[in-house]
């Protein structure tokens, strides 16, 4: 399980999975990805579910995560993604399992307002700017998967 992780602008030289490529059971909670694929190009699969006969039926599941910008997923063969809800998906996130009523797809990735920065922390994370805009990921979650701290290590209700 990956929790409270922020991934931006990783690259893969061969194949897919510029942020994560996994064949076994994978669970992402409060994970943010952005900047892995150049807009208007063929997506390379930011998150990739790889085929392996020994573990291909194990899920790649997301909860309370943000797959933004031109980031996407790629599942090989009979592999698939699933959702436990609370996810926000950008325009090219096609291929993700969107749980009706508990996940949202955004046709304009700029609504996320993401940029990399410390946002008061000592570590770089993807966060949204204090631009006064209403961002769809704020307050959109499944409470069962909420932790008390965010990716910066700050209480979730801190600015």
Short descriptors:
159 residues, mainly beta, 7-stranded parallel sheet, globular
Short description:
This protein is mostly beta strands and 159 residues long.
How does this model look, in words?
This protein is mainly beta. 0% of the residues lie in helices and 29% in strands. The chain is built from no helices and twelve strands.
Order of helix and strand elements from N to C terminus: EEEEEEEEEEEE
Tally of DSSP β-strands: 12
Low-confidence stretches: none
Structural class: mainly beta
C-alpha end-to-end distance: 26 Å
Sheet having the most strands:
7 strands, parallel
- Number of helical runs? 0
% residues in beta strands: 25-35%
| Helical residue percent band | under 10%
Radius of gyration, in angstroms, nearest whole number: 15 Å
Mean pLDDT: 75
Shape by Cα distribution: globular
């Amino acid at each position: 399980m990956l929790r409270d992780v922020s991934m931006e602008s990783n690259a893969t030289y061969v194949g897919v999975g510029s942020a994560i490529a996994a064949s076994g059971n994978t669970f992402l909670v409060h994970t943010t990805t952005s900047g892995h694929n150049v807009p208007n190009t063929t997506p390379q699969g930011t998150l990739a579910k790889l085929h392996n006969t020994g573990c291909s039926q194990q899920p790649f599941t997301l909860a309370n995560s943000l797959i933004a910008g031109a980031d996407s997923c790629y599942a090989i063969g009979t592999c698939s993604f699933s959702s436990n809800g609370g996810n926000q998906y950008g325009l090219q996130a096609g291929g993700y399992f969107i749980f009706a009523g508990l996940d949202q797809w955004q046709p304009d990735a700029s609504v996320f307002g993401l940029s990399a920065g410390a946002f008061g922390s000592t570590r770089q994370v993807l966060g949204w700017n204090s631009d006064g805009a209403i961002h769809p990921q704020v307050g959109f979650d499944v409470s069962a998967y909420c932790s008390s701290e965010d990716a910066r290590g700050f209480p979730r209700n801190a600015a």
